[in-house]
Amino acid sequence: MSTATSSPDSRRTAPVVGVKDGLVTIDARSAAVVKNEVGHVLVGAQRLKAEVLRVQGGRADLQVFEDTRGVRAGDLVELSGELLSATLGPGLLGSVFDGLQVPLGALAREHGFFLPRGVDLPAIDPERKWEFRPLVAVGDRLVAGRAIGATREGPFEHKVFVPFDEPAPVEVTWVRGGQLTVREPVARIRDARGRERELTMQQRWPVRRPLPEAMLRARLAERLYPDRPLVTTQRIVDTFLPVALGGTACIPGPFGAGKTVLQGLISRFSAVDVVVVVACGERAGEVVETIAEYPELDDPRTGGSLMDRTIIVCNTSSMPVAAREASIFTGLTIGEYYRQMGLDVLCLADSTSRWAQAMRETSGRMEEIPGEEAFPAYLESSVKRLYERAGVVRTPERDVGSLTLIGTVSPAGGNFEEPVTQATLGTVKCFLGLSAERAYKRAYPAIDPLISWSRYLRQLEGWFREHVSPDWVATVERLTALLRDGDAIHQMMQVTGEEGISVEDFVRWQKSVLLDMVYLQQDAFDDVDASTSLERQVETLQLLTSLIDADYALADRDEAREFFTRLTGLCRNLNYSREGSPEQARFRAEIEALVAERRVRPAASGDVVTAGDEP
């Protein structure tokens, strides 16, 4: 959808009066300047993109998104009159952008792999044609966010909307279908004052402004309470630390704890429609690995390439700080756009620590009063504004879409007390804390169940009661207590040795180890165990619960150790067996036989579940 652009005669310029690294100060007395407005620093034939951060007195500070070498006092800055915005329309899926939505593939094809500065390319291919199908007729009256038509983009019907900030109802005066580019008019609308304008299949939206903001204010859209879980197929997450669809979560952890691997598997196997991966400041090697792997991965939902429903926004740690800070807002805006189509979107931000460090560096250049560890004083409010853009929304089309935001945090030395981690913990409702100790023991995921928490477990209790089991949450809480008891017993054993605890306590510790080894840990490199469906999670947990609740005839610690070692091995082999395979039936029978040898009496909840039992 078209947006107003400045004509050559109306362009406003202001001279540069100071340069400090990536920060440029201009004399704004002769030109009206707006915060977050885009400007271009003119250096010869190059146009360096910048954004207004602060307007103070007769001067304005702009952060330049590229290297400022060669910029000097007296150079002109051309002000665009447009806020820093993203282009939204068909053609985004499968793309790789930088933080300013420049398509890196097209940029590399035109300029090689050493990217020049001052180059800007359209985010969506302006030559590609799309089969546009109108959904409205001449004379129809529409409001902001209503669909005027649709086209096919990959596996989805991509809707084309009335501009999201349209203040009042408009009337359709002309519409057409057919093979069209994103820049060709598809409809014409007239407002209450009789003014007409053309709409195209693409539109622009300011990245720092939540996309449904105006529609929510006008009550054309509605925020809903998240009431369904995001099924990630990672057992410890889905069962013990669930994330709601449309919710927020963070994954803090030290270097080498497996954040990237965990995010990769969540993005691949989660039950969502669209995945937006934002690499804001991670090392270039990790980003290159992500870009190279995604097109080669099979999508378990569609059978095609995972990249067909993925969008990657990447700014590595070697790229300019300002672009790194903008990248996460670009990714969120794209995610909000697909949410408006009634799709479930997952946005993964890796990592918000690098994003916060970019803010710290920019704040230091602006000589703002620093907060803790030199982060800006407004760090906490910035983190809250970021995560608040997630959620479940009923759109003006009456579709329901969700945007789930999971951000990783990379605290130096694994210190969870540092400002970014603390600001994030005060905002999200699910904390998946990675432990260096568990990572070094080759436990995957290295999520520590004793320090992690999720407020969604109780929030989603009604869904679990209806779709899983009436006592699901109570069972999970009881097993969490077992893990805590097991850890306390293990700590005591570190001091007194095994002889310092009773056989009963030793058995309880062994049961907690069984739960940890069999259920909380998975094999990321095994085709079966890397991803566990919710139905199989229920079946496995019911089996483990019956094994844990049973009493066994174990004379001493050695006998208990041998029994639980064999039981753990059989249960892990069961995890590796495909659903319905002969191996699965064999391991279930072996588990039943082993337990029958030692069982004193059936557990209160019933016998061990057999292969033929209903879960």
Mind explaining what this structure looks like?
- This protein is of the alpha+beta class and about 625 residues long.
- Helices cover about 35% and strands about 25% of the residues.
- The chain contains 17 helices and 28 strands.
- The strands form seven sheets. Strands 8, 18, 19, 20, 21, 22, 23 and 24 form an eight-stranded mixed β-sheet that branches. The chain has a six-stranded antiparallel β-barrel with strand order 1-2-5-4-3-6. A four-stranded antiparallel β-sheet has the order 12-11-9-14, with no helix packed on it.
- Helix 8 crosses helix 9 (about 420-425), helix 14 runs antiparallel to helix 15 (about 535-550) and helix 14 packs parallel to helix 16.
- The two termini are about 50 Å apart.
- The model is unreliable at about 1-10 and about 605-615 (pLDDT under 50).
For the structure shown, list the relevant keywords:
615 residues, 8-stranded mixed β-sheet, 6-stranded antiparallel barrel
Please give a quick description of this structure.
The protein is an alpha+beta fold.
